[in-house]
Amino acid sequence: MCGITGFLSAGPNPNPVATLEPMLRSILHRGPDEHGVLIDGPLAMGMRRLSIIDLTDGTQPIYDESGRYGIVFNGEIYNYVELRQQLLSRGHRLKTHSDTETIVHLFEEFGPACVDHLRGMFGFAIWDHREQELFIARDRLGIKPLYYTQSPGHFVFGSEIKSLLLHPSVARSVDMTALSQYLSLKYVPAPRTLFAGISSLEPGHWLRVKNGQVLEKRRYWDLSFVKPVSAGSGKSDEEYADELLALLRETIGIHLRSDVPFGAFLSGGLDSSTIVALMAEQLTSPVKTFSVGFDGPGIQDELPYAMQVADAFGCEHHTLKIGSADFMNLAEKVLWHLDQPIADQATIATYMVAHLARRHVKMVLTGEGGDELFAGYARYAGERYSRYTRWLPGFAGAGVRYLSERLPGLRRAKIAISALTYANEAKRFANWFPMFKDDLKRHLWAPGLVQLSEGAAAVFAQHLSGCDATDPVDRMLAVDTKLWLVDYLLLRGDKLTMANSLEARVPLLDHRLVEFAARLPVHLKLRGSQRKFLLKKVAERLLPSSIIHRQKQGFPIPIDQWLRGEASSMVQDLLSVDSIQHRGYFDSKLIQNMIRQHQAGYVDYSTELWGLISFEMWARRFLDRSPVVEFDPTNLEGLDRSLATATI
Predict the structure, then answer these.
(1) Does residue 315 carry a catalytic annotation?
(2) Tens digits of residue pLDDT in 183-222
(3) Which among 2, 114, 315, 467 is annotated as catalytic?
(4) What does the alpha-carbon distance between residue 453 and residue 113 come to, in Å, rounded to a whole number?
(5) Which residues make Cβ contacts (< 8 Å) with residue 484, sequence separation at least 6?
(6) Residue 647 pLDDT > 50
(7) How far apart are CA 293 and CA 299, in angstroms?
(8) What are 231-242's pLDDT values in tens digits?
(9) Residue 242: which residues within 8 A CB-CB, separation 6 or more?
(10) Where are the domains of the chain?
């Protein structure tokens, strides 16, 4: 696991080391163990290494036998053992036992098609010395990030945006379309970022670059929801469960390949609990598990459920309680690591539980992906009601939305009602649990910017147009896998674990398992009111029933209370009239009215206010100041007071 960054120019670079060194320093947290550089004429690229496999011989860059190809790599290739044997049988000479070396030899053998052989998470760059050409690629599901930008004569890339910003050719300004999408979705969907001109390479894509310019961009993998002919052949639920369990056991097994201590994040939910159960099956020592909860009177969290699972499997369990002070003290640090805002209060908790885990292990397995594979969110069940509501004329739908907004409380119910009033599929999908609903966002912009009021429906429409799913639930799963999962959940997970020099692996997103889930009949994902039906069938063989069938709780951060109380000063500072007017994007009167209504308890605007706070913090940190390294990822002052460890 590492961080990579570099640049390819149209001609020789006069002093490449002076440019590359601060770029690498900005991602030190991704790889504190060592670094390496490759400089060759117009190219300068390097990596920071967090050593997980082949601790002594895996130093990058790594070259093929002839020295023609050199690679810097971020990620893990889980089938590297099998690939190494295949390469040796083909006559390749490998000097190390690292997964990185298998990639460069596969490229030597297959060219860009090398990615078809890889099973894992990755973002890498391969330099062809003879052709003076650069090849960069990102894994199928987008587990590892990879960004790039072009300017006349320069192509700059890296695992984190902050490294790109330190190249002298890269300017810093807001992409206004991306800002509009952020206000709707809570995140910016690829290929855009909140920085104008900086792109996120989409999952399952690669690029060829020469003379500082992209020659070719190609998708090498996509997820198909076409059902096999045998899907309706009468296979029983138990037979499907047998097949899924075998896949889960196999993918957990290869995700446990590591030369360093490891553990698991454990929320007490179905996904992470299933992973811990399968880890316990395959390991001879107790699984180290890590959970987070919340301090404060009357606040309920999932720590009791996590402890129940840890107790059932004899885990070495570690817990962490966070409070409003942690929320306020860490907000800017977390945002710096994210590179661009994600309007999710859980980012603070993710950062802190990763910090806790890093004190004990160097790698963890997490449960991300289960909801998007097996239909775990309430909106999947809710979408089935659209067949009764999508006949509403536009004016009637608008009327229903207007009336529902005037009702106090019932935030989640009102959002569901609002989404279901849209006849257009893309608009409906974009309005299931948005940050700013389209109707409110139209009034948010400052005068002169109202042309940006369009919601995120166009993004959904683009993905839906290329989707081969026919069932409404499958279609929603397809876009969530491309959008929400990648640019919200996985980005959050990668940036905030790597902020603590901790590798996070996501076994449920092994592409073979993902393809299996996509081909399943919908009734095995959503049956009546029961979500994640097949995964629960498997879990019945592994977990206590109280874990399997309890109501999905999510991550119940009391942000609404904190913004009314302990964090109210943060609201007043970052969303003051002067701050909003100085930035020039939003209507300060509307925002002040939202603050007053939230403080009075009449409307819960915590999501919207936190989204605006996050944007202003981002603008101050990345637009008003240089993104130099300011935070030591190994030092979180004051955190020790809230750490608790229990050995079971």
Answers:
(1) no
(2) 999 999 999 999 999 999 999 999 999 999 999 999 999 9
(3) 2
(4) 42
(5) 185, 187, 372
(6) no
(7) 9
(8) 556 789 999 999
(9) none
(10) 2-219
